[in-house]
Design a protein that fits this description.
With 394 residues, this protein is of the alpha/beta class. It folds into two domains: 146 residues, Alpha-Beta Complex (Aspartate Aminotransferase, domain 1); 228 residues, Aspartate Aminotransferase, domain 2.
Length: 394
């Protein structure tokens, strides 16, 4: 198919629930994508923080071929070796209180399971979440999402047991979390909300308040884990440990997997039949996830993310901005937000015309989530493009 044929077929046979760019990619390599005509694009979105190793990393390609020849799927009615090995590997990367895993197919499902687990463990019925948050689109995770644009039209499905606090407001936390709260649900950095980084005080208060009132602290690390922020997990920036952590995106390197991690004690709230997943933790995706994690460690990509992120932030902050087109730049590691207001969409279009892919979130924040293996020349390419854009903006 050429592009017009792809577009026509998409419009005829698919739900029109995505706003798609006028392009179709057929292959990728490292941080680059290639369209149907062979044109190269620099990808600074990475499948929305999914392709941490970039495209066609040999470790993933080799594991896909190897595991596909052995065993792709077997149900959780039986022991799954690759699942057990992945759980052990994750446990070796986390504090001892996060030592058991439950595997699902996405971040949304991981968050859904976390909410169910909190209710079962505490016997309580209410939750506290943050305004401007994003936790998914299924009923429970959507109910925890503090953005009306995602909830609008689905009000009959929204669970009424959620109270929302201002993100990074300690006093709101202290008031909202009480003896009826099963869990406080937070992102350690709000991704979809515009790369909003909370204070150390806020995150420590979250931990303290949950301890004082017997609520679980659930941290949604779906977007932030596995080196994205310059730490293996973003909670490490704040010197705290959650009771429950949800994972996905980079874990599968492009293949669908999510995970819920907690302590052995809390996990006991799920007895056989309490929760399950047909595809969750199948041998194929678990083998690939093991390969992804091994490669992140072997190639030192967590430390590299921190170093490259500092370098890129320095470049971006040094760009002349006399006309005020850039309102602010913030981030940790290779998770960077450039606040531009109405100019953000114009920059996205300008970048696309120059074969660079960026994402706009929260209405006016250009979000950079490149593969962790991104080269310095690619970072400079975007910095130069932003410099030119800002210099010509009125």
């Amino acid at each position: 198919m050429n592009f017009e044929q792809v577009k026509k077929t998409t419009e005829s046979f698919l739900f029109q629930n995505y706003s798609r760019e006028e392009i179709c990619f057929q292959r990728g390599h490292r941080e680059f994508l290639y369209d149907l005509d062979g044109n190269e694009f620099l990808d600074l979105v990475a499948g929305i923080a999914v392709n941490a190793l970039g495209y066609c990393h040999p470790a993933i390609v080799d594991e896909v071929c190897l595991q596909a020849k052995k065993l792709v799927h077997v149900s959780n009615l039986y022991h799954v070796m690759e699942q057990a090995e992945l759980a052990e590997m994750l446990s070796s990367m986390t504090p001892s209180s996060l030592n058991v895993s439950l595997f699902v197919n996405s971040g949304t499902e991981a968050n859904e399971a976390a909410l169910k687990l909190a209710v079962k463990h505490t016997g309580r019925s209410r939750f506290v979440a943050a305004k401007n948050s994003f936790h998914g689109r299924t009923v429970g995770s959507l109910s925890a999402t503090g953005q009306l644009k995602y909830r609008s039209g689905f009000e009959p499905l929204i669970i009424p047991g959620f109270d929302f606090v201002e993100y990074d407001n300690c006093e709101h936390l202290k008031t909202a979390v009480n003896s009826e709260t099963a869990a406080l649900v937070l992102e350690p950095i709000q991704g979809e909300g515009g790369i909003v980084i909370p204070s150390l005080e806020f995150m420590k208060t979250a931990r303290d308040v949950c301890d004082e009132r017997g609520a679980l602290l659930i941290l949604d690390e779906v977007q932030t884990a596995f080196g994205r922020t310059g730490k293996m997990f973003a909670f490490e920036h704040y010197g705290i440990v959650p009771d429950v952590m949800t994972l996905a995106k980079a874990l599968g390197g492009g293949f669908p997997i999510g995970a819920l991690m907690t302590s052995s004690d809390i996990s006991k709230a799920f007895s056989p039949g309490s929760h399950g997943s047909t595809f969750g933790g199948n041998p194929f995706v678990c083998a690939i996830a093991k390969s992804v994690l091994s490669t992140i460690v072997a190639e030192g990509l967590v430390a590299r993310s921190a170093e490259m992120g500092r370098m890129w932030m320095s470049q971006l902050l040094s760009i002349p901005n006399e006309n005020g087109a850039v309102r602010g730049i913030r981030g940790k590691g290779l998770m960077i937000g450039i606040e531009m207001g109405d100019e953000a969409k114009r920059l996205q279009k300008y970048a696309f015309q120059n074969r660079v892919l960026v994402n706009v979130c929260a209405g006016g924040v250009v979000r950079l989530l490149p593969p962790l293996i991104i080269g310095q020349s690619s970072m400079k390419r975007f910095s130069d493009l932003l410099t030119l854009f800002v210099s010509t903006s009125s």
